[in-house]
Amino acid sequence: MSRRLALFAAVAALATTPAAADPAPAWAKPYIGAWTLSGASEGGFACVFQVLPEPGIGGMQVKMSPACRKNFPVEDAAAFTEGPNHELLLIDPLRHPVLRFKRAGEDWVAQRPNGQGDDIVLNHSRAEGPRVLTYPNTWSLSGPDNAQACGFVVNFNARGSGSMHRAGRCDPRWADLKPVRWRLRKAGMTLLDKAGHRLMTLKGPDDFNVYVREDAKGGPVFFGPGVVVGP
Question: What are the structural domains, with CATH classification, of the chain?
């Protein structure tokens, strides 16, 4: 092989070799791994998300679970970083704070952006999700952070299916969606009408029994344990 061909071959090999991932900066290494979000009140919802070892815009990339996205205002969270005065921040792709956590003993605590509802507690640990579901149970269908919620009572049988019916308030988004049964399959959970026709299939569940459909009209849809509000 000529020297020129050998040079071309070396350049081509370099061009096709995957670039090594950027190493995590020193400040980020203590934060990498599983974190738990929970409501400040006892018995509130909880979820687990991951701070990844890959740098993102303004911090380290995060991976939010469906349960976090359903129950907390984190749909726009793209990265995790430190803030002033020992704060920890979840930020959006424009580096705007989504949640700002202040140290409180062994945990960090953030107020909800609208100031309504429980404070949100952040802990550097992996909470255990429920191992067994108990039915009947109250679930809700909603968008992120429980927006546009519709409450249901869900009943279970041993064959991985069961009945369900609406309970409490239901957002107009779901006016034409009237499931009366649910069924588990490898792909997730399917909601059925009274004739047995498929209305919606959601993937999952995550560790906290939350299912998600990402491509739904109007934005992502979540179905899992929730609060039935109102009559």
Answer: 26-123 (2.40.128.10), 137-225 (2.40.128.10)
